[in-house]
Structures are given as C-alpha cells and as structure tokens.
Amino acid sequence: MKYLTSQALPLIEIIMLMYKGISRQNAKRILVQNTISIDGRICKPKANELIAVGQTIELSKATDLPKDKKPTKLKDHPSILFEDDALLIALKPAGIISSKDRNQPLISSFHKTLENYLMDRNQKTIRLWSVHRLDKEVEGLIVFAKSEQIQNQIKENWASFTKKYWALTEKKPKENSGIIENWLKDSVKQKVVAFEQEVENSRLAKTEYHFVKTIKKYHLLEITLHTGRKNQIRVHLEGIGCPIVGDYKYGAASKYNRQIRLAAYHMQLQHPQNGKILIFEYKPNESFFNPMQADEKYK
User: Which entry of 85, 135, 186, 295 is annotated as an active-site residue?
Assistant: First the structure.
C-alpha cells in the first residue's frame, strides 16, 4: 500500500490517514506488523518520526520483501522536511557538526550525511551548499541550497527570514520577555565573549526571548534570532543568568553529560525562485523537555 504525503506529519498520523478511521493503537500495530519504505528505501522509522511533504510511504508484509533487501537503520535515513530543485530543509540531530570543519577534515558532518543519502537514493552525485550552521550540540531545522547561485540568493535575504528556537534553561529570567543586544567576539579559549561596546573583531548580536512556562525544575523560553552569530543564544542566555540545560561551556551545571536543550524549531523563509513563503516547524521529543537526572547518550 502506497501513500504520497501532502503535508508534513508524524508517521503514526500518516498511517491513520492511510487507513481512515483507525485508532492510534491500531496504527501502531500496523507499523509493527509491516515493513516501511520511504521513497523506495526500506527503513525502521519510529512512530513519531516526521515525514516531509512529497515523500512516498509504502507498507508491505515482511514476507513480501526480496531476500537481499535489508532495512536501513534509522540513523542512516535523515529527516527531510522539504526538497525541490532549489533547496532542501532537513532536521539536524544534536551531536553532529552542520558542515565540514576545515580544522577537523576527518570528522563527519550532517552536510556530508545528506549528500551521501541523496546520492544513494537518486543513484547520482548530488551536491549541497551550506546556507547557515547550527552548533554541533544543537538540533533543529537547517537549510541547504542545491546550487551556489541559490546559496547566494538565500544568504543575501537571510536577515529577512524568521528563525525561532526552544531553549530550556536552568533559571527563569527576571523579565518574562526582553531583547539582548551586545557585541560578540571569539576568545583564545574557543569560547565566545560578549562586550557592551564594540571592540576589535567583534560583531553585533541581537536576541529576543519570551518566557513560555516552567517544566518541573527548568524553564522553557522561545528565542527569536535577529542576527546569527556563533554561539549567540548560548552566550546571551548565560549573560542574563539563565544558562541552557546541558551547556556547561556557557554556565550550566556539569554534573551530568547532557544534550544541550536548544532546538531550532521554527523557520519562515521566502523561496528563492517562486517567491512563496515557506513555514516549517517541528516539536522535539519529550525527552528534550524532560532531561533525565543522569548521563545521556545522544551522539
């Protein structure tokens, strides 16, 4: 049974659309009893994995599969929310760098992971161009161009796009909302430092925050970026006494080894070719909002 997705939804909800009227429990049973293929690639996705618009989902009984077909591990199947001839928008997991690091050429990147996946899927070489970066420890929406021309177009208009993050902090800010604006500069200790006035080689950074709610002992903030500097949100939240959970580099408790609770969850941009406004959102897993009181394995 095949189904072409018309909207980005978790897999479990797509199964419920394929089998109209079934319960969520029965949909889970279907996932367990069938083999899942996404765009012709057999894999083992989780029920809450986000499936992008335009992807083809196929269900088949395990006995119907050729013997040489082996399911691909989920980690080998990147989550792509949008793709056309101009650009690609994907969900980068925490624990992997966005793009190749010249100082560490042997370390794998999400950029390269995507290119390898596309080459395997399309059986031809496909190149992607980086538009922006997410810190290694940060998860979320990331954009790649499919040509250098499109890359330049998007970069020229990057300031007009909307980028929002969820940040889970150790402390609640004194004010429920505010704007942090100062100058950021790399230090010799591989840490970004903030200055109230411009200094040599510094860059202006502007971050807007809104308190959303308290979750047990932590606090959820919605962050809107007005500039995109290295480690900007992490530095700014440390500066107001609200370090991000897991971010011991910028003031958080280091008792446990944790994923940094910062996620690029919302993006709005104008398509570089047809001018349409594209809006994408995703919700991190519940474990993002409820850290364990123990070391985490997420890489």
Answer: 135
